[in-house]
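Consortium newsletter contribution from the modelling node. Members have asked for a concrete example of what our holo predictions look like. Here is one, prepared for the 2NL complex that several groups have been discussing at recent meetings.
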Amino acid sequence: MKDRLEALKAEALEKIHASSDLKELQAIKVEYLGKKGPITEVLKGMGKLSAEERPVVGAYANEVRDGIQQGLDAKSAELEEAEIAKRLAEETIDVSLPGRPAKKGSSHPLTSVVEEIEDLFLSMGFTIAEGPEVETDYYNFEALNLPKDHPARDMQDSFFVTEEFLLRTQTSPVQARTMLKHEGQGPVKIISPGKVYRRDNDDATHSHQFMQIEGLVVDKNVRLSDLKGVLETFAKKMFGEDRKIRLRPSFFPFTEPSVEMDISCFKCGGKGCSICKHTGWIEILGAGMVHPNVLEMAGFDSKEYTGFAFGMGPERIAMLKYGIDDIRHFYANDIRFLKQFRNV
Ligand code: 2NL
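And here is the predicted structure:
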């Protein structure tokens, strides 16, 4: 019996020594120490032995079992260590490799131009006002001297949501709301940049959604010459110090008198080129003195207060400034287009 156990132990240890992974080791454990293994078999058969033999064989069987278990434990630790060492060797990271450059975005050209215009007017003491894009008919039209069925409403084909609500066609409702908040007390000096919507068929120069920046100054003794001074400063800062401006008579329902402002061509200096269509002048924005009806509806006494207002399209400004030939480029999100404005 002792010889058999001795042989079993030698055999098991040999196999353990020769094994090369943890799975194999587990199989050896089951084979020798498992419920159906030879050691268990010996221990089970102890009942048949005599009283003298029993403790001797029992003690020996236990010793053999412990010996095999120790062999298994030692080998298992050895294999685990080898596995870790192998992984450490395989998974080393070369920290000296240069990293992959992170892709960096940039401001959308329209955003850049809007921010440039905002900064310019902020530097002249204006503040920025905002308002809802879904407006009431009252603020979008009526408060701006455009009563229902007024023919000038046709200039701004609109998207109505209900009888009463529409997507604003201009940012003027923001000015009307701001004036009302002032409760008849000046000064008001704001610009209102934002998205506006008009029912239009999109082409190179039209979009059903675009941006507008309007400005409004209301105070005592505000005159057309003040409007001219502010707009001239804007034109020079935006398109170059040697720009000249000219005002032509125009019509807007919310201003009287109304003007259109041109700047001398920044490309040819006024001699005539393709940019200015050989006129020497480029149309930039519309403006005028706030109509007394608009002031009164917004709670200002039009005998005491006057004001000027202007409105421009930042897309048009950006197109002129950067030679962009199609308004749809601003909304197409074509990375090839956007990339060209990385450094502006
Ligand atoms: C244009 C013309 C303009 C205004 C907008 C305005 C607002 C109030 C009162 C009076 Cl609350 N006027 N805004 C005035 C004149 C022209 O925009 O061609 N924009 C692109």
